[in-house]
Amino acid sequence: MQPNEVKALLESRIDGCQFYIQGEGCNFQVIAVGDAFEGLSPVKRQQLVYAALSDEIASGALHAISIKTFTPAQWQTAPENVQ
User: Fold this and answer.
1) CA–CA separation, 20 vs 47, rounded Å?
2) 20 located within any domain
3) 64 assigned to some structural domain
């Protein structure tokens, strides 16, 4: 898979979030920013993203995924936000 394919899958399955994807093959780093994470624990946030990619993980198309999640307010001061 390519990063743009992973991004398209996530955008189609989780509303109101921005995704920043890096990686190649079946190993990716996902940064997700959105209101969907407001009020959720870190574990629940990761579960939301994993659930959106469960079919691809089960098929082996995605193997290793690193996930960081932020609300829009958290993203403003996140060190990962280098735009």
Assistant:
1) 17
2) yes
3) yes
Domain count, the chain: 1
Write out the residue range of the structural domain in which residue 21 sits.
Answer: 3-72
Q: What is the CATH number of the domain that holds 28?
A: 3.30.300.90
Q: Could you report the per-residue pLDDT of 28-82, keeping only the tens digit for each?
A: 999 999 999 999 999 999 999 999 999 999 998 898 999 999 999 999 999 888 7
- Distance of CA 63 to CAs 23, 31, 48, 66, 69, Å? 11, 17, 17, 10, 19
3-state secondary structure of 28: strand
This prediction has a pTM of: 0.90
